[in-house]
Design goal:
It contains 22 helices and 14 strands. It has helices at 16-27, 39-42, 46-58, 89-95, 110-128, 137-162, 189-206, 221-236, 265-280, 327-335, 361-364, 369-374, 391-396, 441-446, 522-534, 559-573, 580-583, 586-600, 607-613, 617-621, 637-640, 664-669, and strands at 4-6, 36-38, 81-83, 347-349, 387-389, 447-448, 453-454, 470-471, 495-496, 520-521, 541-545, 552-556, 626-627, 644-645. α1 (16-27) crosses α3 (46-58) and α7 packs antiparallel against α8 (221-236). The two termini are 37 Å apart.
Length: 683
């Protein structure tokens, strides 16, 4: 069938980076009606084929981003951070309300239709590209692998939000069929998992192991296998594995879509898939070398603060210890833009700088990590000053020695030269509350606490000294504190520094460094490996074939293997590994893994899904949000740090919020589609 297909010719196909500067052109189909080519023409020509592929990549933008501002990425906000914009967005999002233009029924629903548009596009390419006479066999394999990866990845994005979704025929869809014949029901969640896993395994065979620096955002073999590992991990998790509470999630024939019988073997498959990635040897955690002195005048890059002495880890080099690394800088630089994709061995898959620019205004803002940073930067540095960290998240960061932070027993008072001896493991400035002293390095890389310095080193005009290396205060009456008739103040009084570079500034001639989106990084695979192993009962063992059939993994609850996953992440963070008694206790280790993921993957859209797949979202997202008392001015600074319920920030969690609802229009188009549980009033 030689159908006419719309192909958009404006996109550069030389590098994936150029895809992101032209993606919005793809969204305005009307202006390209004249630019048509037959499938036969498209898939016998290199340029047209690559343009076709680029369309699939472009659908990763907008509502399908994974780390960004709340307008396109609400799942980046769970119980760890709060956005304070108006228009009722936060309330609608947290309470699961329908009817707001910014709620589930609005912008966020574009992810569904964009994903299926890309799935169709990728399917056509996979089925037609073998006849391309303009590409070498190696190039055909690579392009097919990319399309296969993207098709499976879009299913993965939707599964995390919507649960089980319809898997479309891999041979393509004949749009000459009747409307009823083109209505596809949801597959079961397990069917979705196995489809994606098999697709990613095949993609791994087609994709190269490495990319050059011009093609870093294209998937590799490791990326395909890493997504496979994550999909298996979710499929093994309590929400989808023997969850009888979801027995009413059915299709129109009455088939239950969530597994009703628990299978421990699912955890073994998840562990084996993660082990495939680990033993591939393609990735490693990013680290910075220990710095025993600072460059004169370089306040933005201080010398390394050694973690408290530990008899096991202080004298060993990474990954057995932290002697030769700077834990603070290692973590900060992973996200700040200091290191690009090519030079960061930890990043497995990324949209790179996920900005969509062009003639669609609603895609220009709020849809990349840079815009996330804009909302974190204080008013005094030209930022929007609207994203807050919850007190719960702030208090979750451990002490420098790895012990839990205790608000009741922490140091009292405020930092000064007189008490420097009491806080050897921080770089607090005078006036900062002592509860922020002696915390682990990831705290200082992530938390914009009251009185923290924002370096703003790119400021360059005549008044740049007004912002460079200045402390930022959130007391009422301060430029960045509570203000009437303004939304640009932090509702919890706790800022966020993750993703922020010392260079970043939005006024005084400054700029923001390009950011790397951490869609999937190696630390996640390591911790996921330990989590999966922990769920296997002592004495049980499984033999799981590796992804390529070259070996057999013997999977059991092995303490040394679980430590293989967790210890490097802890060493990079400069905190002690868990003790044997924790590793030896499944429940205790699970609690620590929950906590470790909360810290390590803060603001990476992981917490939102983790709480749901573990079925612990009600107790966490349903709890009230607390912060500092932002009504207090500096004259009453002690009272500023007394926890208070954040006024106007409501939160709740009901069963229906485990999954996003199906858009009403989709329910009307697809007569075989069923609504997610709890949303039937939206049907």
């Amino acid at each position: 069938m030689n159908r006419k297909i719309y192909i958009l010719l404006a996109v550069s196909v030389m590098t994936f980076g150029s895809f992101f500067t032209s993606c919005s052109d793809y969204l305005n189909v009307e202006k390209h009606f004249a630019d048509t080519q037959s499938e036969d023409k498209i898939f016998t020509d290199r340029t047209y084929t690559m343009q076709w592929l680029s369309y699939c990549y472009c659908r990763l933008m907008g509502d399908n981003i994974e780390v960004g501002h709340s307008r396109f990425c609400p799942q980046n906000f769970a119980d760890d951070q709060v956005f304070s914009e108006t228009y009722g967005r936060y309330k609608a999002y947290k309470l699961g309300e329908i009817g707001y233009g910014y709620s589930y029924s609005g912008y966020y629903q574009n992810s569904w239709k964009w994903a299926y548009a890309a799935i169709y596009q990728a399917t056509v390419l996979i089925n037609r590209i073998d006849g391309n006479i303009d590409l070498t066999p190696e190039e055909i394999s690579d392009v097919k692998g990319q399309a296969r990866f993207l098709r499976a990845y879009f299913y993965w994005l939707m599964m995390r939000r919507y649960g089980p979704v319809p898997i479309m025929p891999t041979g393509g869809v004949d749009y000459g069929k009747s409307y009823e014949e083109l209505s596809y029901p949801r597959n079961t969640y397990d069917e979705c998992v196995e489809f994606i896993a098999e697709e990613m395994k095949q993609a791994a065979k087609e994709l190269p192991e490495k990319r050059n620096n011009l093609n870093m955002a294209r998937p590799t073999r490791g990326a395909a296998l890493a997504v496979r590992a994550k999909v298996y991990l979710y499929g093994a998790s309590p929400l989808f594995n023997g969850n009888t509470e979801m027995s009413d999630f059915q299709d129109k024939t009455g088939r239950v879509l969530i597994s009703q019988e628990y299978s421990e073997e699912k955890w073994a498959k998840a562990a084996a898939a993660a082990k495939d990635v680990i033993e591939g040897g393609w990735y490693q955690l990013f680290t910075r070398k220990f710095r025993d002195s600072e460059v004169a005048g370089d306040y933005a890059n201080p010398k390394t603060i050694k973690p408290p002495y530990h008899p096991v880890y202080s004298e060993k080099n990474f990954p057995e210890g932290w002697k030769d690394i700077d834990p603070f800088e290692s973590y900060r630089s992973t996200f700040s833009g200091e290191v690009n994709y090519y030079n960061n061995p930890e990043i497995i898959f990324s949209r790179v700088t996920n900005r969509a620019e062009g003639d669609h205004d609603y895609l220009v803002d709020y849809c990349d990590v840079i815009d996330l940073v804009k909302h974190q930067i204080p008013n005094s540095a030209g930022g929007y000053n609207m994203h807050s960290m919850t007190m719960k998240q702030c208090d979750a960061y451990d002490m420098a020695d790895g012990k839990p932070f205790d608000r009741e027993t922490c140091l009292s008072g405020f930092a000064s030269a007189k008490n420097k001896k009491d806080r050897p493991y921080d770089n607090l400035e005078d006036g900062v509350w002592m509860g922020y002293a002696n915390r682990e390095p990831r705290f200082y890389a992530s938390v914009g606490y009251n009185g923290a310095r924002w370096n703003c080193t790119s400021a360059s005009d005549n008044s740049a000294s007004d912002v460079i290396n200045k402390q930022v205060w959130y007391y009422r009456g301060k430029p960045d504190g509570r203000a009437n008739n303004s939304e640009r103040w932090l509702v919890t009084g706790i800022g966020i520094k993750k993703y922020v570079h010392s260079n970043d500034c939005m006024n005084h001639g400054g700029n923001i460094l390009a950011k790397l989106e951490p869609a999937l990084r190696y630390a996640d695979i390591l911790v996921s490996y330990a989590e999966a192993l922990n769920e296997i009962k002592d004495g049980n063992s499984y033999e799981i074939e590796s992804w390529d059939g070259s070996k057999t993994h013997v999977i059991s609850r092995d303490i040394n293997e679980m430590r293989r996953g967790i210890k490097p992440v802890r060493m990079r963070a400069g905190v002690p590994d868990f003790t044997d008694d924790i590793y030896g206790n499944r429940d205790l280790l699970f609690e620590r893994i929950v906590h470790e993921r909360q810290i390590e993957f803060f603001a990476e859209s992981q917490r939102y899904y983790d709480l749901r797949r573990w079925k612990i979202a009600p107790e966490h997202e349903g709890a009230q949000i607390y912060g500092c008392n932002v009504m207090m001015d500096e004259a009453n600074k002690e009272a500023f740090y007394v926890p208070v319920r954040v006024a106007g920030v409501q939160t709740a969690f009901s069963r229906k919020q485990y999954f996003w609802p199906m858009n009403y229009d989709e329910l009307q188009r697809n007569k075989n589609m069923t609504q997610a549980p709890g949303w039937q009033d939206y049907d």
